[in-house]
Amino acid sequence: xxxxxxxxxxxxIRLLTLNRPKRLNALNADLIAALSEALLAVQHDDxxxxxxxxxxxxxxxxxxxxxxxxxxxxxxxxxxxxxxxxSIDLFKLLVRIDKPIIAAVHGYALGAGCSLAFxxxxxxxxxxxxxxxxxxxxxxxxxxxTAHAVHVMGRKIAFExxxxxxxxxxxxxxxxxLVNRVVPDDQLLPAALAMAETIAKxxxxxxxxxxxxxxxxxxxxxxxxxxxARDVSVMMARLPxxxxx
Length: 245
Description:
Layout: E1 5-10, E2 13-18, H1 29-43, E3 50-55, H2 77-96, E4 101-105, E5 108-110, H3 112-118, E6 122-126, E7 130-132, H4 144-152, H5 155-164, H6 170-175, E8 181-183, H7 188-199, H8 204-218, H9 222-236
Parallel strand pairs: 2-3, 3-4, 4-6, 5-7, 6-8
Antiparallel strand pairs: 1-2
Helix pairs in contact: 1-2, 3-4, 4-5, 8-9
């Protein structure tokens, strides 16, 4: 059976490649479970400094796999709830994992695939990348992606993408602050790995605490964020600074 997720270690970098190319790497139960397990493994592996998530074949991820209908019935309600819980847990891991996560995106990143990309800490986009939320056009409710979109982009932009169902180019995503870098397709993985290698030079304890502080600050008002940052600063001052090269 083909592995739905390829896991490769390159020095201090863990490369996770979505590997359902015949389905453009659409997320199904097996891929969600494999990606969640791989991220949890990274959290507890001191040899890993950063993670790069990419897609095999022609696309990053077009969203959830809709090839099998998921009609709500009395018989399958429990299964659908479990699937939804596992999907949400995957997106929560993007924040909870201390190691910075870099999405290397080419081709389609739509729906849940768009959330996977924008929910990562950094995004490197190939020129071929296209981002969007096509749920309404497909006759679906934009539920999970709505919660994610409103927290990672401006409200007007999020609502436009959800309502208009129009894909945006990587350059437009860059202008909106949703993508960090746009590169030619053949430079996508090298560019993402280079960012990860830079992060790997820093003190891993400080990197992890910086990511935790960042995400906590994003959920607070400015005074609360500053108070929290003060407390973290005092706590981290007790740790020896690492030598940098």
